[in-house]
Design a protein that fits this description.
The protein is an alpha/beta fold and 275 residues long. It has helices spanning 22-25, 36-44, 55-61, 104-118, 163-171, 191-204, 206-217, 221-231, 238-253, 269-272, and strands at 5-9, 29-33, 50-54, 67-68, 71-76, 83-87, 96-100, 124-128, 141-145, 159-162, 175-182, 233-236. It has two domains: 5-77 and 174-272, Periplasmic binding protein-like II (D-Maltodextrin-Binding Protein, domain 2, 3-Layer(aba) Sandwich), CATH 3.40.190.10; 83-171, D-Maltodextrin-Binding Protein, domain 2 (3-Layer(aba) Sandwich). It is built from ten helices and twelve strands. Strands 1, 2, 3, 4, 5, 11 and 12 form a seven-stranded mixed β-sheet that branches. Strands 8-7-9-6-10 form a five-stranded mixed β-sheet. The model is unreliable at 271-275 (pLDDT under 50).
Length: 275
């Protein structure tokens, strides 16, 4: 029997449309769920063939021969709601920064934005473990991502920044949070086409996803639907690629990603060998 393609995905609401009915559309795959940061580690360890990983982890792993699956992303062209910086002090006075351990791209974005917008490089940077409430952290500012970032009230904080909106205001470009990334030398066969169908069907059934997952997350259905269909973009077009390249340069200046990383896109092996 053929060995199944191991596909790493995340359980966050924002990723649901990208693998909607995956096993039906691609019966030869084995879907494995984990945190984005852990998926990046497992891809690097050759435990997955393709994974939805933080975009900064593509930059950090490019030397391993990683390839981006063209056309797919979790991105935002304005407010995203699920990546927020909660600050107890004025943003130009942040000295201690706690970062949600779930996604390394958002960790890097928070540091890039604080440096570029406020000239701030925190003296102490620490992780906020999954499951630890933001109000339990005593850091000056705390980054939260994912579903729990959408439920924290703004009231106790001096400032709350939606980092995708802040990035767009600063650069005029979308921000790319995650990508389907393929390990070097892997033949995905028809999986890219199946993933395209997953995305199309997932977005066509965004109301179903909102009804199914909203109550479980403590979010109303209308908020979930708007989040999936208005706040997020699942395309990797030219604006998103330009935003990713801009982020790569800015992250490299802070030592958060390697210098001079090129974006390499996956091609089907049978097409790549044709003349």
């Amino acid at each position: 029997m053929p060995v199944p393609i191991r596909v790493g995905a995340v359980s966050y609401l924002n990723a649901k449309p990208l693998y909607y009915r995956l096993e039906e559309f691609a019966p030869g795959v084995r879907r494995e769920m984990d945190l984005p940061s852990r998926l990046a580690d497992r891809l690097a360890a050759d435990e997955l063939e393709v994974a939805l990983i933080p975009s900064v982890e593509y930059l950090r792993g490019a030397a391993r021969g990683y390839e981006i699956l063209p056309g797919f992303a979790i991105a935002a062209r304005g407010p995203v709601r699920s990546v927020k910086l909660f600050s107890r002090v004025p943003l130009d006075r942040v000295e201690r920064l706690a970062l949600d351990e779930g996604s390394r791209t958002s960790q890097a974005l928070a540091r890039v934005w604080l440096d570029a917008r406020h000239g701030v490089r925190p003296l102490r940077v620490e992780l906020l473990p999954m499951g630890v409430p933001v109000l339990e952290s005593t850091a000056d500012a705390v980054l939260l991502i994912g579903d729990r970032a959408m439920k924290i009230p703004d009231a106790p904080f001096h400032a709350v920044v939606d980092l995708a909106e802040a990035w767009q205001e600063m650069t005029g470009l979308p921000f790319v949070f995650a990508l389907w990334v393929v390990r070097a030398g892997v033949d995905l066969g028809d999986l890219p086409e199946a993933l395209g169908r997953c995305r199309a069907e997932g977005l066509a059934h965004a109301d179903e996803l909102a009804r199914r997952h909203g109550p479980r997350l403590g979010l109303d259905v209308a908020t979930c639907y708007d989040y999936l269909t208005r706040n997020l973009s699942y395309d990797l077009g030219e604006p998103e690629i330009a935003g990713l390249r801009r982020f790569a340069r800015m992250a490299a200046r802070l030592g958060l990603a390697p210098e001079g990383v090129d974006l390499v896109f996956h091609r089907r092996r049978d097409l790549a060998t044709r003349r």
